[in-house]
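Q: Could you fold this chain for me?
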Amino acid sequence: MFAQKKEAAEGLGANPTDRGRSGTKIHLHVDQEGTPLGVIVVGANVHDSRLVGLTIENNSDLISMFNICTDIYHLCLDKGYDYPRVHEEVYSYGFESHIRSRGEEKIEKQEGLHPARRWVVERTFAWLKGFRGIRTRYCHYLSTFIAFVKLACAIIVFRKIYAKQ
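A: Sure. Below is the predicted structure, expressed as structure tokens.
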């Protein structure tokens, strides 16, 4: 019992896809070009849909800081977020949700619709996994691991800014 509480405090949880080994999930909020706006680290046993509000709240300062003036903010999410409470929560934060529903791939192939832009987030995850200390979590303490993840995000932002010049 005590070990489970300590693991949860350190951002670890039983990974359901890896035979119950302890693992960590990284939740990213990126812009349309894949630039990381914010990151949240939790245990692997926490469902994705539970952290939508926390991820958006964590990054609301950046949206106002960059003076992104648009009438509608779009938020693209994958099938793991396809729940009515997530749609309501996303709407309450002022975003228009674009969440893939279950079985949408079959409809998409038949009607020739455009695919979701989820690949932008997956590409940013690939950039993060390029850092060895993030690909395999060697840090015991959550605060150290979060510092490494945020440093990696800062390096990614720096590279994107430097590439534009």
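A (continued): The beta strands are 13-14, 22-30, 36-43, 73-77, 95-99.
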